[in-house]
Structures are given as structure tokens and as C-alpha cells.
Design brief:
With about 200 residues, the chain is an alpha+beta fold. The protein has one domain. It contains three helices and ten strands. The protein has a five-stranded antiparallel β-sheet with strand order 1-10-9-8-7. Strands 2-6-5-4-3 form a five-stranded mixed β-sheet, with no helix packed on it. The chain is globular.
């Protein structure tokens, strides 16, 4: 598994694709009514998740920060991700998938970036697992990957993969076991996580 980013710097103005994403430059504007908003310390966090689209269940996720009295975020970043791993998961306690939540109950919301990982080399679209990377706003200028909360999410997802599914094709059983094992290894810090290969 490879997190999309370890740290995500925020632009000083506007919305931009961060380094490491396939797209570059400014993000598309998000209509005001499409933002989800939650408090995060002295700022509010905003997320708009557009998707899923296509057979790869692709999403464009826009993340912004704004002042408490601002009707919309002042600046932020865009991310592209895929939830194709949902095909093997199919059932999770926090579905539909949440992209912004206070996971540790400290009164400050975290950004959740759902992503998929291959279960074998040259995997088909049916051979991916689903994971989640959690990012915390550490200053007004940066999001940082929260390893502890990401591992906790991995443990929850592994438990979902271990739970039996009603009316699930038997062909999914080995892949679900592989996904659970990979997530448990990450949750228990028993594996090396590949660093993102940014240009």
C-alpha cells in the first residue's frame, strides 16, 4: 500500500493540484452547495467529493480550509483517487463512505482519502482492496498523514473484510482474505509502506 501523500502543502491562494497528482495547475471551482463542512480548530475544513465515475470508481476530491465565518473555503487542494476496491469489500459500517469526520473525537475533523491497492501483480479491477488514508490539518498551510488514525481505519476495514457476506460470489473469498491480511499487517506496523513516488 502506498499513501498518495505524506504531507500536502496548501497554496497561499486559490485551489491547486499538489505535486504528485496526475493533473497540475488550478482545480475546477466547486459550487457552494456541494461542500461538506466541519470544524478543525481555528479553521473549518471543507470537502467536496465528485464521483464515483467509470469502471474504476474514480473520484475528484477537493479539500479546502476557511475561516469560521466564511461561507466557503478560501483555498485548498484537489486529489484524484479510486474506490474500485469496494468491489471486494461491499459492506462497511461507515458507508456511504465519509470523506470528512472527527475520527478521534478531539473536536477537530480529519480528511479521509479512500484509495485502492492491488492484491496481486497486474491485478484486474476486481482484484483490489480498499483502504483509507487520514490527513490532519497541522497548521494553516499543511495537511499531514496521521499514521495512527490511518492504521485504525485499516484495522476496521480488515474486520469488515473478515466478516462473512451474504450472497457473495465464492471467487471473492480468497481476495477478501488477502485484503484483510494486508490491512492487518499495516495496522500492526508489520509491513513497510511504500513512499509515494512524486515527480
Amino acid at each position: 500500500m502506498t499513501p498518495p501523500h505524506i504531507q500536502i502543502p496548501l497554496p497561499h491562494v486559490g485551489f491547486e493540484w499538489p505535486e504528485g497528482e496526475e493533473q497540475t495547475g488550478p482545480c475546477e471551482a466547486v459550487p457552494r452547495e456541494k461542500w461538506i463542512r466541519k470544524p478543525s480548530g481555528s479553521f473549518d475544513l471543507f470537502v467536496s467529493a465528485d464521483g464515483p465515475s467509470g469502471s474504476g470508481r474514480y473520484w475528484n476530491v477537493t479539500v479546502g480550509i476557511g475561516k469560521k465565518d466564511s461561507p466557503k473555503p478560501d483555498r485548498g487542494i484537489c486529489l484524484a483517487t479510486s474506490t474500485v476496491g469496494w468491489r471486494t469489500l461491499q459492506q462497511f459500517k461507515n458507508s456511504p463512505l465519509v470523506w470528512l469526520d472527527d475520527l478521534d473525537g478531539d473536536g477537530k475533523a480529519e480528511v479521509i482519502v479512500w484509495a485502492s491497492f492491488p492484491l496481486r501483480p497486474e491485478a484486474s479491477m476486481a482484484e483490489f482492496g480498499l483502504t483509507a488514508w487520514v490527513y490532519r490539518l497541522t497548521s494553516k498551510d499543511s495537511f499531514v498523514l496521521d499514521w495512527k488514525l490511518s492504521r485504525r481505519m485499516a484495522r476496521d476495514l480488515a474486520a469488515a473484510y473478515r466478516a462473512p457476506l451474504a450472497n457473495s460470489p465464492q471467487t471473492f473469498a480468497p481476495m477478501r482474505a488477502e485484503a484483510a491480511a494486508a490491512l492487518e499487517m499495516f495496522a500492526d506496523a508489520r509491513c513497510t509502506v511504500t513512499a509515494p513516488n512524486h515527480r
